[in-house]
Amino acid sequence: MTKSAQEKSTKSTIRKIFSAIGYVLFAFVFLCLVLVIVQFAMHKEPSLFGLRLYTVQTDSMLPSIEKGDVLICKDTDTKYDYKVGEIITFVAPDGFSNSAIVGKNVTHRVLKAPFQNADGKWVVTTKGDNNSAPDNVDIPLENIRGVVVTNSAPIRGLVNFIGKWYGFVLVIILPLFVILVVQIVNIVKAKSQAEKERMDKEKKLAIELAIKDINAQLAQDNVGKNNVNQDNNAAIELAVKNLSVELSLDNDDGDENAAVELVVNDIKEHLAQEKAENAEKAENAEKAEKAENADIEEK
User: Cα angle vertex 75, ends 73, 80, to 5°?
Assistant: First the structure.
């Protein structure tokens, strides 16, 4: 394999790797979006890989958490052993001190680990860091949405930005559109490359058949030839050998393919010319023989 062919093969491999990575990323983003849309359609809070995002609505957790902060929470279930000091997000139950947020998400710190209340329900006691007293009602474990993993300022900025129509377009719609266009272009290129490889394969097969045809003609022409034509035949055979070497090179260079085709055509023209010359010689010899025979008959 030539240096040029090796470079092309390496570039082709790199393109295939990047294309595969692009397909995986596109599929991943697409599946995530589908999952989120399905959860919205089922009136569920979106969750990916057991994580949820919540935006803080009040100042009850100052100074550790500010209003508007975006929290990443880990999903839990009713069997989770909540510990004192953990920050949790829960749905405010009926009777909550701030009636305006009943049924909405609240983020407070666990003040008392899970215990059974008088009704036999498992609950936790919570309190906002900025509040002077614990919440007036205990929180049933089934109301808890998750444990806060981190408070991310960058995500807060990103979520706020996406909340605006232009932010949604720039962060969500535009990247997806670009990824989609790139994937379409890659698919078209792959089909075009496959078609080119198919045509090159057919061309190579045609040239190989031409070589076999030339060799067959050489073998036939060598029968009964005199020594004068041996040098010509040797030259043709050498050309065929060189042509075979060219075909063995792994390359996609159109110029080299064209050059190979020219060699084939030259060889065919040479053989045709040689056949014509041999035919003319045979015809002249036949005429001479007839003339000689006619002279003998006259005598």
Answer: 115
Contact 139, 124 (CB under 8 A): yes
pLDDT tens digits along 231-251: 555 656 666 666 655 555 544
pTM of full prediction above 0.70 = no
Q: At how many degrees (to 10) do helices 230-248 and 254-298 cross?
A: 160
Classified as helix, coil or strand, 90 is strand
Beta bridge partner(s), residue 73: 52, 148
State how far the Cα of 104 lies from the Cα of 201, in Å rounded to an integer: 67
- Residue 145: both structure tokens together: 């949405």
For the chain, the residue count is 299
Q: pLDDT by residue (tens digit) across 163-211?
A: 788 888 887 788 778 878 887 888 888 888 888 888 878 777 777 776 6
Cα(141)–Cα(279) distance, integer angstroms: 104
* Measured distance CA(5)–CA(8) in Å, rounded: 5
